[in-house]
Amino acid sequence: MNILYLPGRISPGFSCFLFIVSVILFSQNACRQKEREKYTSWEVYRGDDGSNAYSAIDQINTKNVQQLKVAWTHQTGDKSDYFSLECSPIIVNNILYGISPKLKTFALDAATGKQLWIFDPFSENSKDGGFNRGLTYWKEGKEERIIMFVDNKMIALDAQTGKQIMDFGENGYVDLNKNLRAPVTYPEDVKNTSPAVIYQNLIITGSAVGEEYESSPGHIRAYDVRTGKMKWIFHTIPQPGERGYDTWPKNAYKTAGGCNAWSGLSIDRKRGIVFAATGAASFDFHGGERPGKNLYSNCVIAIDAKTGKHIWHYQISHHDLWDYDLPSPPNLVTVKKDNKTIDAVAQITKQGFIFLFDRETGVPLFPVEERPVAVSKIPGEQSWPTQPFPLKPLPLNRQKFDSSVITDISPEAHEYVLQEAKKYEWGDIYLPPSVEGNIQIPGFRGGAEWSGACVDRETGIMYVGINDIPNIVQLIERKENIAGEFSNMNMQQAGKILYTRNCSACHGADLKGNGQFPPLLQIEQRLKPDEAKNVIEKGRGLMASFNRLPAEQKNAIISYLYNTNGGRKFVAKQRDSVIEGSDNRVKYGLKGYMQLLDQNGYPGTKPPWGTLNAVDLNTGNMLWKKPLGEYPALVKKGITNTGTQLFGGGIVTAGGLIFIGASQDEKFRAIDKTTGKTLWEYQLPAGGYATPATYEVDGKQYVVIAAGGGGRQRTKAGDYYIAFALP
User: Fold this and answer.
1) pLDDT one-digit tens code per residue, 90-117
2) Distances (CA, A) of 577 to 285, 475, 479, 574, 714
3) Is CATH 2.60.120.10 the classification given to domain 482-575?
4) Beta-strand (E) ranges in 307-400?
5) In this structure, which CATH number among 3.40.50.300, 3.90.580.10, 2.40.10.480, 3.20.20.140 belongs to the domain 178-329?
6) What is the pTM of this model?
């Protein structure tokens, strides 16, 4: 039948066509709205299961962000020079859950900042505390739980009351030392500084462990959310019969440590896959006792969330000698490539690389080359001859140190750094550590750091802060258990050697600290000897426990620091090595966690030293790079756009904004995600070295950041949570 089209009239066929189109458009809009609603809450660390720190809320946008005002401020009451606030809070049902510098968990009214409850895991007036980046929320029916970590313990709290759930684990605790190895060599090594993820009724978690030769392994484990009973374990240091066992010496699993997912995990609920990014094997800077590639160190790993079974992995650094831990949880993203929509995994690195993998297979989406790198000169060290280099995206920071990159902020600074640099070996990335010392670039603070990247779900564009400051790496010989080493020495003499061996890497050979770790000169004015010994045994802040040291060695260090027991003879006790066959081997320690700095303490390379970068994950192309942060003293001299070392991540919103603290000038900024231009900034009372969060209450959007300062940057300490909103 022919259909007649007449002016002013719609044919039945065309009417049907319009109906079909309208149905399709309605369906698409409904899907978009449903997808948008998934990203309007902040119930998960870093905003969503994919760790993308993205929000679809757009009430605060590029047009009105300059009107932002402080909505409320909450002080925890326990600020600390040692423990920086790195917590990104979660917000559930208009309640904000956060952590204080001394690891108290609390609940606030998210609209007013009024405290609802607080839980202190330590005894009254305790000086303990630590670093912890967030919490985990679980709900089933009317039951709600908050999962928190304190040192080596996992604790479950009632989300409404803050009361500890005493039938969780044993007496209210799950001991993270259990099931790692029997026995755990040094229980104080095992901690957890990042939140777990939830899959159905499983809590899945990594851990932070020590970085010495005899440290604990960093296996990934799943626990029952109600009982705390372990359900499965993934051995990041493989055991006999497991994939990767042949990448280590025989029976290495009994003694080797590290390889831990310390930065948190990501979860693909639809596929039932948990994604982990692991750190280096211990000891970080010498691998003479662990020849081989050392799986699953420095790997992105896809694990079956129900069973803990291996699905795929990709190793980003073979036989790590540079402390190139994967610093943040993988980003689960969706990209468009070759006219295909691909669910992918993006991993940022301390080297300044971005790796992009197919989420189901682990196949790289951009080419990766195995390139030859320098070989170690340390006797017995078998460094790996090649390392993987992604061809796209291009590296986000310098990959080579030479005279052309030395600072130019003044002729005096240039000459000073040049003379300092001449004391060490220079070269490309992956220059192995040596006794003579070398300049490591990128440094082991990144590149990217634990704060991670945020990704715009709408565009596939990643925004990531990058440090571009090299380190000086120098190894020192450390002979252990050799008879007569301390013969005829008094306590102070032995203590000085032991201090140099165990403590100087962070606190300096001259006891003056290094900017990130405090000086120990005149320690008697701050800590009593028994308090200092307690810190040695338990650790504090960034400092790991050194309880592995025999009692006489700890006492000798205290004697040296406090100038006591000068005439008392030191009696060394022979100790069997934990590592079989290593009793009299020459091992190596790190002389210090030193950065290459000028005479005034500024980075020794040309600025910018800290940048915010926008990278299109669909194409692998850089869109923009902007310095982030300023040094006020340099600004007064007309030296601007330097950027500062960054600790703390950003979030990206549908309002066209990136919110980020991170910089040493202690400012909180809103940045146009398209151009990188700063549209608004606020001077925080302390550094915002945490990833912010955003949420809605009664139709009003808030942005909140923890401002704790102190810690790594050694800026002034604080204990603030500050929320911002439009008037």
Assistant:
1) 999 999 999 999 899 999 999 999 999 9
2) 20, 21, 12, 9, 36
3) no
4) 310-315, 331-337, 340-348, 354-358, 368-372, 386-390
5) 2.40.10.480
6) 0.89
